[in-house]
Amino acid sequence: MRTTGTARRRAAERRRDTLRRLVSERDVWVSTAHPDHGPYQVPLWFLWDGRAVWMCTGATSVTARNVRAEPRVRLALPDTFDVVLLQGAAECFLDQEVPGEAAGAFAAKFGWDPRAEEGSFLYVRVAPESVRAWRGEPELRGRVIMRDGTWLA
Description:
Elements: H1 11-24, E1 27-34, E2 38-48, E3 53-58, H2 62-69, E4 72-76, E5 82-94, H3 100-110, E6 121-135, E7 144-147, E8 150-151
Antiparallel strand pairs: 1-2, 1-4, 2-3, 3-6, 4-5, 5-6, 6-7, 7-8
Pfam families: PNPOx_N
GO cellular component, one term: cytosol
Domain Pyridoxamine 5'-phosphate oxidase N-terminal: 25-134
């Protein structure tokens, strides 16, 4: 793990870098919890629409069951040095009820349209309420770059 030689970024730089990654990256770790069965974590493809993360999973998956029972989720981009954590409440849309613009953008990004599949899928939208971003120990202080849904920089 790299912990030295990292210049501390200002909050505006962290926000810019975070938004760039949300647009360009493909995978996000999704952490959910069921009130009776506890925590669950899975990687999913995601799309950032400029305000929220969109993911898709099987309508009967553990993730789908969990977010219906407890909508609070945490998302993490898959880099343990350049950390980005998002937290928010999930909104669920069955594949035939998802807004067309979101489903179309998801299909365009991944070359796969769950609405065309035989099984039923659930689209999950998470508008972040908080975002934390840091690269190594020098950036632990000031890592919160969004609070209560408002960017701090």
